[in-house]
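so my prof wants the structure for this chain in the tokens format not the other one, which i didnt know existed until like an hour ago. anyway here's the sequence
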Amino acid sequence: MRLLTLLSLAVLLSAGFLLTSAGAKKAETEKLFNGKDLTGWKLLNPGDAKRSKWSVVGGVKLKEGMPGRFDPEKGTGVLLNGDDGHGMNLLTAGVYGDCALHVEFNVAKGSNSGVYLMGHYEVQILDSYGKKDKDLKYGDCGGIYDTAPPKSNASKAPGEWQTFDIIFHAPRFDKAGKKIANAKFIKVVHNGKVIHENVEVKKPTTANMGGPEKSVGPLMLQGDHGPVAFRNITLRLLTTK
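here's what i got, hopefully its the right format
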């Protein structure tokens, strides 16, 4: 009898372990850019599509004699806001809240762009190469616009690929729709260096997509301030209280 009880307990524990493991399965990472075309993306103002300068290319390099622009290479894998870069912002068709975002970007000399979480909260992209840490502002590369400069300058030279790894929490709202907690950047890592931790954003940053704050929103890539290229854009939803 004792042996049977022990065996039964082992079976129950095993089943419980399996259920716990299945319930604790991490959310899958979503590839936002498929590397081939703009499936899953839309323009901020689709009625003015002729202004768009987004295309899919095989690679980019700084244009000889004009380093403020890119020379695109044939192929796929890179999302380019090309020419003079004064085109249109690009948004995901999907909407997201709390998430872990990875994005690789390449900025031309003197150029300017940004990654907007939920279309509202910008992590700045700028050619800030060589700028001293003490001189950094929120408008420098990695800055949370209108809110906080990066702790240090991790920028690479124009024409080099760089990375952002961002852990972000969406704003919270009560049942009546009143905001009870601000959006927060839990951590921002630029080229492997932590540049922000636990930074609250009280309201949407400058040049956001417009509209009220919500619990979910699209990712937006700024495409109206200068040439910039992106690749390997992935997002994982986070389960938080």
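also thought this was worth mentioning. The chain is about 10% helix and 40% strand.
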